[in-house]
């Protein structure tokens, strides 16, 4: 039963991946919020590079594109987060983040470290499955890398647009650019990116453990994005409670997915983050 469960699962290679993820995400021991921010971005870049080294002989054009997108995603996210922390407009948020993580000490930090390291491997795993399978390019890879590219572009544009807007209008809510179609386009972009990463491997995954790890990674990041959007909804509602323009905005613009008339996640019961 155990052998069947782990059929075609590259145990040794994924062990190396976990070890690398543990090393990089250990940045969180310097500052707890880095477990899920800078450590997250750099872990994705590190895992993409590791997979490329391990399965160099298995690279195809599309698997190389998938790995390049993962690498770019991680570098961009980490550099964006580092840059954001230096901006005066983010000072209050940074202080609040530090205060929220002050209680994370000792054993709890170790649990978070181990958990996020496993999660990051699970999220990146579909790229490993594509390489490990060493099959001709599948239809799912064409669709997958397209969604990944679209997702990272949406997230990047949304972050840049909001950063530029807040630098000039720190006390106003963002409703320009991509924010005309979604109140959280950056979170939507990330959800799209990881959905594309999973789709890349749909036609090559074999074995229960392989499928489960990929699905767990995808499901967790999707629930984390839902939780992040929900948390932002409560925060903005409190901050702009007296702003009639904001009240009209939240009733007209979907909270997450453009053109899908879902305007609130307050009643959401299943989410992470």
Short description:
This protein is mostly helical and 273 residues long. It contains ten helices and no strands.
Structural overview:
With 273 residues, the chain is mainly α. The protein is built from 10 helices and no strands. The protein has helices at residues 2-5, 11-25, 38-54, 61-85, 91-100, 106-133, 139-168, 185-200, 208-239, 244-252. It is globular and about 60 Å long.
What labels would you give this structure?
globular, mainly alpha
* Overall radius of gyration: 19 Å
Oligomer: single chain
What class would the helix/strand composition place it in? mainly alpha
Shape: globular
Average pLDDT works out at: 91
- How many DSSP E strands? 0
The low-confidence parts are none
Number of helices: 10
Q: How big a fraction of the residues is strand?
A: under 5%
Give the N-to-C terminal Cα separation.
Answer: 34 Å
Helix content: 55-70%
Order of helices and strands: HHHHHHHHHH
* Largest sheet features: none
